[in-house]
Amino acid sequence: MRDVREVLAALSCCASVELSPSGYLQAAIQSADGIVLVPGLDGLATIPESIAAIRHKRPQLAIVVAIRDAGDSELDALILAGASDFVSLPASVSEWRVRLHRALHTAAAPCRSEPVPEEEPRIRGFVHGSKACAAIAARLPTLARCDASVLITGETGTGKEVCAQAIHYLSMRADRPWVAVNCGAIPVELVENELFGHVKGAYTHAHSACPGLVREAEGGTLFLDDVDCLPLSAQAKLLRFLQEREYRPVGSNTVHHADLRVIAASNCNLCTLAQSGGFRQDLYYRLNVLNITLPPLRQRPEDVPILARHFAAHFAREFGRAPASFAYGALERLLRHDWPGNVRELKHVIERAVLLSSGQVLMAEDIEIEPASPDLPLPRSFDLAADSFRAAKQRVVEDFERGYVEHLLAAHAGNVTHAAMAAKKDRRAFFELMRKHRIEPKRFRAFESQLT
Ligand SMILES: Nc1ncnc2c1ncn2[C@@H]1O[C@H](COP(=O)(O)OP(=O)(O)OP(=O)(O)O)[C@@H](O)[C@H]1O
Question: What residue segments make up the domains of the chain, in order of their start?
């Protein structure tokens, strides 16, 4: 912890905080004018107790904890005791300065002290039946209490965005914006522009100023989905932003201050990617302060019937139909599949089943599972004579959607923004279609480079 002492000595606002292992907490309460820093000189074991004691005396105080290699349970204990934020060590002087300044000047620290009831709708929105997901659901209110960055990993469709949204709406930032962006969908050359905005005249086609996503998320939460897709140049800018909480729109000389929480998600193992040089290690540490790993659906079969019933009720309501139940054979079919597209795939299968079923009980033959070949979906043949009108129409619509999206992506070399603009759909809706049909834009980027 020598580096912490040196850093603190360099910070005038904390000159009076004592760092002796036994006496510094009390000194900090009395002298630091609204901030307590807990550097963990004796390790983290006794820190939650100390924080709880401080919280008891000063409920509004922002408490920033310095951590290094802390485990989930240690971090959860710190948050439950009342920690508002964390600084991952080693941290630069400027990062300390920003965090301490932020803690000192945040009128009401965005820390939620009261427990969240289990029937809270946002927790219920994360539907689960398995032990693994029950443990994750139980952590969501804990993670929502503090303001540190969260990294959520798991295969596509496992519910990363559902968890991130739950954290936002359970937090003190709930009445401020929730802004989600898919980093893989932003063309490389536009990442900085999308995140930080630009001023009028910043470049040839910048006819008006654009605020950027960071500005849009001010006060709330910015969700960076597929964060591993950020090009290295953008990773450097994001890192600087996370450290300084300041940014400059493209073409502007004015530095803006941002107050928001960042939650990032990735389908790949970001730690391994960082070790192999595919992702900045320092950025990985800044994002991965708190962590959630969502298991794939095939590893939590207990969730399948519960999610299936949840989606069946949801789509019955949406289509104005009576609630449907499942025949034994239908559930068996669902349980035999290994769900490469995870919960998203299950949701679409149930949507189709509810739409196509003729009765109130979903039968095995209503459960249509596509062949597992996400990159090369086969055009499905259908027998007009044997299919009901509704079934035939549904197939044609789905085949049309897939073909249309693929055609536009091929025409725009995998650039999702341009393809969505050509379709006159917003990028999010276009992206949802891509995910529904498990279409990877990368496939079309490679296609272009083969051609040129
Ligand atoms: N536990 C859950 N309860 C209810 N709905 C869920 C759950 N998990 C996922 N879903 C639904 O499945 C779909 C995919 O979920 P989500 O977008 O959160 O996945 P993701 O892991 O973020 O996927 P991607 O990596 O492709 O971005 C959404 O429609 C979401 O509502």
Answer: 2-105, 121-295, 298-369, 376-452
Any ligand 1 atom below 6 A from CB of 184: no
Q: What is the ipTM of this complex?
A: 0.99
Query: What are the start-end ranges of the H helices in 217-302?
Result: 232-244, 270-275, 281-287
Closest CA to 164 of 277, 312, 294, 278: 294
Alpha carbon 272 to its chain's center: 19
pLDDT the model gives residue 81: 82
Intra-chain end-to-end CA distance of the chain, in Å:
54
Cβ(225) to ligand 1 under 6 A? yes
Specify the higher pLDDT residue, 192 or 185.
Answer: 192
Counting ligand 1 atoms within 8 A of each CB, the residue from 126, 162, 167, 306 with the most, and so the one to mutate, is 162
**373-413 confidence digits (pLDDT tens):** 444 444 455 555 556 676 677 778 888 888 899 888 888 87
CATH fold of 121-295, please? Rossmann fold (3.40.50)
Q: Give the whole-angstrom CA distance, residue 222 versus residue 245.
A: 13
Residue with CA closest to ligand 1 atom 25: 156
Decide which of 296 and 76 is more confident. 296
Q: Domain spanning 2-105: which superfamily?
A: Response regulator (3.40.50.2300)
Q: What Å distances lie between residue 312 and 85, 251, 317, 355, 420, CA to CA?
A: 40, 50, 9, 10, 30
Given a contact cutoff of 8 angstroms between Cβ atoms, the answer to whether 315 and 354 are in contact is yes
Domain 298-369 has CATH 1.10.8.60: yes
Locate all alpha helices (DSSP H) within 249-387, ordered by sequence: 270-275, 281-287, 303-318, 328-336, 342-356
Backbone angles phi, psi at 444, to 5 degrees: -85, -25
198 within ligand 1 shell (Cβ under 6 A): no
Cβ atoms 412, 419 nearer than 8 A: yes
pLDDT at 422: 87
Is 298-369 the same fold as 121-295?
no
pLDDT, tens digit (0-9, with 9 covering 90-100), for 225-254: 999 988 888 899 899 888 888 888 888 888
Q: Is 190 in the pocket of ligand 1 (CB under 6 A)?
A: no
Q: Residue 149 C-alpha to ligand 1 middle, in angstroms?
A: 20
